[in-house]
Amino acid sequence: xxxxxxxxSTRSAGKRALHLVPAVPLAGAVPMPTALAAxxxxxxxxxxxxxxxxxxxxxxxxxxxxxxxxxxxxxAQGLSxxxxxxxLRSLDHFGQFLREAHAERAFLSGDLQRQILVIDRWxxxxxxxxxxxxxxxxxWGAMTAILHRLQRIHGMTNPFAxxxxxxxxxxxxxxxxxxxAERLLLVVRHYQWESELLRARNLALIGLMLLAGLRRGEVxxxxxxxxxxxxxxxxxxxxxGKYGGKDRTAYMPxxxxxxxxxxxxxxxxxxxxxxxxxxxxxxxKNSPVTAAIIRRVFERVSALVEFxxxxxxxxxxxxxxxxxxxxxxRVSMDLMGHESLTMxxxxxxxxxxxxxxxxxxxxxDVDL
Length: 368
Known about the structure:
Layout: H1 3-20, E1 40-41, H2 59-77, H3 81-100, H4 104-107, H5 112-128, H6 133-154, E2 163-164, H7 178-190, H8 196-210, H9 216-221, E3 227-228, E4 233-236, E5 248-251, H10 256-268, H11 291-305, H12 311-324, H13 329-336, H14 341-347, H15 352-359
Antiparallel strand pairs: 1-2, 3-4, 4-5
Helix pairs in contact: 2-3, 2-6, 3-6, 7-8, 8-10
């Protein structure tokens, strides 16, 4: 065999070998760590195809490869920049842990048992910092998503897939009561803001989230021409979802059009003149509202009403109000931009006092 033919044969054998590596065994079928403090093994794990170990020579190579597959996937699937930022922040945090714990070699060795022990130490370190369950679960979700992409693209074993995710919890209530929602609107309306435009802008901002269910990003992208006060509809372009997001139409309940009409009039007469197409504007200059501005608004409003308020909490509250006022689930799904009843149910909450009220509706036609 010639030298060139031999090299071709060696390369072919190497390619075949990649597909002949045995699949990751079921959890429990091979020796697995038993002294885990923060995580637990899933009872079974069946990869869709034979996998190679998760193995890299250096931490920087691992981080660079993981970042590259994330960026490529965001482009290929049309995911949002916020998703990419979430992944990269979590990847950077995990890499920092590996350095500080001197665990790079153990995690990048390809040894599944050692990798699981490193993950256990990482989750333990997160909990020792008194981070909320939500934060821990957020980091976990990001790393699981990143390594899932390494598995799909490079055929590498994802050790996170063998483990039960940490318990999810929440630091703050995820929804406002009707009384709290009413107080929120009243406080924002009657507080002495620095200008009438600022008052009307903040009221419109909160109204779009609380009374129409818009996400923060949807409010920021909302165009002036997409708010139709004549028929009470709001066209939402590129809502949450893959491949650039999906469009939907939101509809205004009776109390929302007056808020938006007042704000729109003040926006049109504002100095300097607002020429940008975005509906929600900066109160001081000719530019659209930013994520930083919205964050400061909610920090200030939370201090005024004396309970925590966030944009996503208002979306949960909107879904809950739809249920409380008897809006059909199928209609609520479309208004929220959800594709399944399961997702809608995650957003719609039942308060404890509702149970006693609702059960009074159960009455048989018999004299007891």
